[in-house]
């Protein structure tokens, strides 16, 4: 797929991710219909699919079969979708808009949102247990364990908890970074490593190098998110803009100022790209994705 | 362990389950501390551990190493604990008491309860991916898939959704059964099958026979639960008694009357026990457990 320009490659991956998710989500004519409807509503028809893109881009480095990466990418997107459903609920961020549509608890109800999030998480692990994504079954168990540790109390869910504890409080840059490394960083790192682990050609050092790239890109993603939250409007963003400042959430912009946050984003992009140098042309998509993450408008 | 009387065997399994859970839950001095505290609070120090008991009892039939069954039992108890935390939340059953203690969202707050439930589910899958529970790695993947399908939208979470849809409505016995087969039945069945799958001596037909036993025992458990909810008081039950009638939830008692529900429980017990006949003495604990489930007071 190296002959495609970046935009075409990206929309191709987004499309195939949508198809894979569509296939693996339970149908709405199967009981309990409303729960399945909510699960599909929460997952399909939107999202940049950054995590799926990263998984596929990393898979190119190890020559992974795209069909295998589809499974990993779907699992990760299901975890991401579950976290958004729960984060948007009234007891958390209490947000009414996501990807330009009413959030799940608004469109359905809170109980359905709670259960849909729960069942999306379960489905993520089910997918990764039921479909072969790598040659060695032992490796596959390790991949399930990695997805779990990236999502759990010392990964994504833990980051959410740190975030909740920080609202309205003065925090240091270090704590903000720690929060983001967990909240968004862990799953982004896992996307990259899991995508790469689908492939047969894993050279020594590849996974740890990619893991480092993922760590930097995860932070980069969050810094840009904070800038966008301040600069963009709700229509472009597809979610409520200006939410951070309003809820007194500490952000990179509130701690570093807009100029400082932009400078940090530039530095992180530089760092991320230099990590990829040893991979040469095989890292093309990862390199393009890092730049895209900085340049995106939503 | 066949020389122990049932009560001693039961408390021995309950103790070792507590120890295993204690070891596998994240420590409270690890960040984020409050989330870890809530996860431990939700899981430790209470509960009959019916699912762990069933897993160990089934493991005796296939001569499973108890250390392996501990992992499976812990995973299942973590799933069960997560479901209780979420079920008790205001948008679901809105219950304030569980196992004689304030529920997680009362003791902490709703956001913490939501995240603790999420992270407990993740930990269940992490445990089962990180620790070897059976000789064949391929079998272990199948066991993870089974735990997921028993917990997800077509298992436990699906049963919750059907339950929510039935509150205040006239439903048929058939729908009630369908709800319970999902809501409590699926995880009970999985406990038995997963416990058995830890062992090396799985004869042809063993798993499907145990699965059938699990299906019957799952219903039995729920019928008795409905009777207890009506008859017991809050102190004995450790959770709010009379909740079903108050919230207009359909139950076996409301549909069949107290006498009819008791008759059904007797019939199901008879059915369950006869399923075990071919296993002879090795099914002793499963047989005792089925009787215990009927005779219990809480």
**Largest interface pair:** A-B, 51 and 51 residues
What is the subunit organization of this protein? Answer: homodimer
SSE arrangement of chain A, N to C? HHHHEEHHHHHHHHHH
Superfamily (CATH H level) name of chain A: Farnesyl Diphosphate Synthase
Commentary on this structure:
2 copies of one chain form a homodimer. With 298 residues, chain A is mainly alpha-helical. Chain A has a single domain (6-292), classed as Farnesyl Diphosphate Synthase, CATH 1.10.600. Chain A is built from 14 helices and 2 strands; from the N terminus they run H-H-H-H-E-E-H-H-H-H-H-H-H-H-H-H. In chain A, strands 1-2 form a two-stranded antiparallel sheet. In chain A, helix 3 packs across helix 9 (173-197), helix 8 runs antiparallel to helix 9 and helix 10 (206-231) runs antiparallel to helix 13 (252-276). The first copy, chain A, is globular. At the A-B interface, helix 2, helix 4, helix 6, helix 7 and helix 8 of A face helix 2, helix 4, helix 6, helix 7 and helix 8 of B.
Summarize the structure.
The first copy, chain A, is mostly helical and 298 residues long.
What are the SSEs and their pairings?
2 copies of one chain form a homodimer.
Chain A: H1 6-24, H2 33-43, H3 50-61, H4 66-88, E1 97-98, E2 101-102, H5 104-107, H6 110-130, H7 137-151, H8 156-166, H9 173-197, H10 206-231, H11 234-237, H12 243-246, H13 252-276, H14 284-295
Antiparallel strand pairs in A: 1-2
Helix pairs in contact in A: 1-4, 2-6, 3-4, 3-9, 3-14, 4-6, 4-9, 7-9, 8-9, 9-10, 10-13, 13-14
């Amino acid at each position: 797929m190296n002959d495609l320009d970046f935009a075409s490659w990206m929309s191709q991956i987004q499309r195939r991710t949508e198809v894979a998710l569509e296939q693996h989500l339970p149908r709405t004519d199967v009981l309990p219909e409303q729960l399945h409807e909510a699960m599909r509503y929460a997952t399909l028809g939107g999202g940049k699919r950054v995590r799926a893109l990263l998984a596929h881009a990393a898979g190119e480095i190890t020559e992974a079969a795209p069909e295998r990466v589809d499974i990993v990418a779907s699992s990760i997107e299901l975890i991401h979708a579950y976290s958004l459903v729960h984060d948007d609920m009234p007891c958390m961020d209490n947000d009414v808009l996501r990807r330009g549509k009413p959030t799940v608890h608004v469109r359905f109800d809170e109980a359905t949102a709670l259960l849909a999030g729960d069942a999306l998480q379960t489905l993520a692990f089910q997918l990764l247990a039921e479909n072969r994504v790598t040659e060695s079954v032992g490796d596959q168990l390790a991949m399930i364990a990695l997805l779990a540790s990236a999502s759990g109390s010392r990964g994504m869910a833990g980051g959410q908890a740190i975030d909740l504890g920080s609202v309205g409080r003065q925090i240091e840059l270090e704590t903000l970074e720690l929060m983001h490394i967990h909240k968004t960083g862990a799953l982004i790192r896992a996307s990259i490593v899991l995508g790469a682990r689908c492939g047969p050609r894993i050279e020594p050092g590849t996974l740890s190098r990619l893991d480092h790239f993922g760590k930097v890109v995860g932070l980069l993603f969050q810094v840009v998110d904070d800038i966008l939250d301040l600069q963009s409007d709700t229509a472009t963003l597809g979610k409520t803009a200006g939410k951070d400042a309003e809820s007194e959430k500490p952000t990179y912009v509130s701690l570093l100022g807009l100029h400082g946050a932009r400078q940090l984003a530039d530095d992180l992009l530089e760092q991320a790209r230099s990590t990829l140098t040893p991979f040469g042309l095989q890292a093309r998509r990862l390199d393009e994705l890092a730049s895209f993450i900085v340049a995106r408008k939503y």
